[in-house]
Amino acid sequence: MRAVSSEIFAPGLLDGQAALVTGGGTGLGRAAAAELIACGAQVVLAGRRAEVLEATAARLGPAATTATGDIRVDDDAERIVATVLERHGRLDLLVNNAGGQYFVPAEAIATRGWQAVMRLNVGGTTRMAELAVERAMRPAGRGTIVNVTLSPHHGLAGMTHSSAARAAVESLTRAWAERWAGDGIAVIAVAAGHFQTDALDKYPAPVRESVARMVPLQRLGQPREHAWLVALLASELGRSLSGSVVTLDGARDNWCGPWPPPAITDDGGDVPVEERRPAATR
Ligand SMILES: CCCCC/C=C/C(=O)SCCNC(=O)CCNC(=O)[C@H](O)C(C)(C)COP(=O)(O)OP(=O)(O)OC[C@H]1O[C@@H](n2cnc3c(N)ncnc32)[C@H](O)[C@@H]1OP(=O)(O)O
Ligand SMILES: NC(=O)C1=CN([C@@H]2O[C@H](COP(=O)(O)OP(=O)(O)OC[C@H]3O[C@@H](n4cnc5c(N)ncnc54)[C@H](OP(=O)(O)O)[C@@H]3O)[C@@H](O)[C@H]2O)C=CC1
Fold it and tell me: What keywords would UniProt list here (predicted)?
């Protein structure tokens, strides 16, 4: 996946820029990092698993380096941003891509589950944005933050914790765009639909198998398409889009129709629930 040049953008679009991509070791984050590098940026990939980040950096080449840490832990978040500044002396673009949830009926979400999802998607995203602004973008009088959300525009009946969290991020995007406009900082959200990444493997099979069929575009989004949008938002155009939520969903959003969804309900009327990850990976 070593990037040479962008398939769609002019060479040097992001020359000289330094970007931080959270969740940059996998899926959409990895593809965004590859495209940003292809456009000329230096990219720091952040995430919790060093080995995953190192493997991706090796694939992307010398413009990619890594910073390991958990964005929910304040010391880690501070260290990640400090690493970017030590390495590059600047931070032009934060791609707040790390996030997630699990598939579960609303009534089965435990308090700890709500907290885990809110803490990652709202808390981690907020802390990374604040640190990027305080430590790098406000002093520089310039910067761009791209918040990646799972589009909640129709409500996410199978992931209500994430529905609330992602709607919060969209609202924060607007508020931050207003609050930081005077500092020269643009804030934009990408409301993504269904994308073909390895992360989809964790969802129950009937859920996974039904999603692509239900996208009017008749296919899942490709990570490089999402990455092109991130690069576009990192360009000068992103500045005029500050405060916007750009939807990229093949006309499907992440939810449609009744609960329980007939396509995934079993003979007993139950909806499949996502399995817990093995303890070692938690
Ligand atoms: C096909 C349909 C969707 C298509 C669109 C795709 C959208 C995507 O977003 S794909 C990307 C998905 N990637 C991820 O979700 C990765 C990140 N996710 C996570 O790390 C976890 O899901 C997390 C958000 C729950 C955070 O994990 P962590 O903080 O490590 O939380 P714990 O595993 O310790 O769990 C805490 C708490 O949460 C409840 N819980 C977690 N998982 C489940 C589960 N599968 N089923 C039921 N409950 C779960 C539970 O209450 C846990 O507390 P304890 O039981 O006391 O441990
Ligand atoms: N694939 C899809 O269809 C869609 C995905 N999205 C969203 O796009 C983003 C990327 O998704 P995708 O690439 O598919 O999924 P992944 O699960 O591959 O991406 C999540 C990334 O975030 C990192 N991460 C998770 N928790 C933390 C944490 N606490 N601190 C630091 N990093 C963390 C993970 O690395 P590590 O575990 O090593 O920390 C991983 O690299 C997510 O926010 C997802 O919800 C939105 C719409 C659709």
Answer: Fatty acid biosynthesis, Fatty acid metabolism, Lipid biosynthesis, Lipid metabolism, NADP, Oxidoreductase, Peroxisome, Phosphoprotein
